Amino acid sequence: METISNALFWISNGLLVPVVVLLLLFFARAILLAGGFFGEFYRRINTQKNFARQLEELTPENAGEKIGLLVGDNNTLLQQCLVKLYSHRENTAYCERLLANFEVDAEQELGRSRTFVKLGPMLGLMGTLIPMGPALVGLATGDIASMAYNMQVAFATTVVGMVIAAIGVITLQIRQRWYAHEMNDLEFISKTLYNAKQTPAQPE
To answer: What is the pTM of this model?
Structure first.
């Protein structure tokens, strides 16, 4: 039994360095995600009012003109989808597939935030528990310096893991609302374009 316990102890200690390295990598990725998120948030503040106004004025008669205004710089996932939606407005099956693909792409974008939400606390907990063994050994042998160092590592990894998870939670919740709203807008635009196709031409 002692042999098994020692093997588990050495395996656990050997995982500390990979866990710390992964925490640092995830922390760097989380900071980049937060920076991109705030940039997108600022862009949406500047464009959302105009976008909502154009949607309110969208009718089957002026669909072509309004879609051109809604597309804008054609950089975002929503705007790219709008271009394809208008270009293939005659093909109902393609438009339905396009909306389904938009939802899949949105879920893929949310996947990064979900990864941080799940793995941040997991790695933080591992980074907390692994140094506790050597810290207890240091306490038992009277090596207070070793115990203090291991406790410092344990607390630091916990904090970093929680920060990663917090960034993931905030970006996940807000982006879920963004994509749900965009999905509703795309469905409305798709139906409007379909109605425009069905509207008979007015006699001259």
So the answer is: 0.80
